[in-house]
Design brief:
Elements (H helix, E strand, L loop, with lengths): L1 H9 L4 H28 L13 E4 L10 E4 L1 E7 L2 E8 L8 H8 L8 E3 L7 H9 L3 E3 L11 H4 L9 E3 L4 E3 L5 E11 L5 E9 L8 H4 L6 E5 L1 H15 L1 H24 L10 H28 L4
Parallel strand pairs: 5-6
Antiparallel strand pairs: 1-2, 3-4, 7-8, 8-9, 9-10, 10-11
Helix pairs in contact: 1-2
Amino acid sequence: MKKVDEHLKKDPSNKTLKKAKKQLSEDLLPRKQKYEQQRKIAQERNSFSKTDHDATFMRMKEDHMKNGQLKPGYNVQMGTEGQFIIGYSLHQRAGDTRCFIEHLEHVNQYISLPQNIIADSGYGSEENYTYLEEQGKKAYIPYNTFDQEQKRTWKKRIERVENMEYDEEFDEFICANGQRFTFQYETKKESDHGYLSIKRRYRCDQCQGCPFQSTCAKGKTYRTITISLKNQIQRKEVKERLHSDDGKEKYRRRKIDVESVYGQIKQNQDFRRFHLRGLSKTTVEWGLVCVAHNFKKWQKIRALQQRGIK
């Protein structure tokens, strides 16, 4: 704007400069200020609600037409034990994976974390597994492809790196046709919590004429795979833990435990939306919902005990 004013002083009759000044003052600069203010409100988020600046647009699980819709909301995380809520936290990001560590650290301020942490596959990531290892906790958390791996069709998918043989001595993967994927380079990526994930890239150049070329290399003469060896080890350990008799029983109880609590609050109590706005207020509101749920659960148990029913 200053440069435009300087040029106008030298040439006051310049219509192009006058038009540019008008556009800057009435349109471009106000819009720039508006966008800067919006970025300040959103911070690291990609959206926010005009009626609740703390709320982030998220893909909701359902609506009256059984379709997922983008609506402003908060991601509620809860920990339960025997269908009692032992801790909760509200987050401004949609994905459960990145809320996991924040939730546990928040709950750990009030109670000690249990030795066994059980959650669904939405929380299974290298960073979360590593965090639990560092805390001395056992993870009973399946990863995103865990259920698929139990099917026969999965084991027949020769293009999956999980179904390839790994030669630890030479650091190479061997495909179904006996060809080797040699190491190329590794990349490092840091997460929001400062966790550094290292992924290694391997390449095979012997795909030309391979009988599996169309399915494995997608018709190309070569194929690359990018993988975290640390995460592969973690997945193997989690898989063995979940396949054990103790692991099966623990994960079976999770479905009865935490899912019942969500069902009780959403379906039976018909609590499907917050009445207050702002992260601090909605956190208090959800806290009251949790207290009410725990009190009702305790009252029901007391009533059964008084009748001599355990």
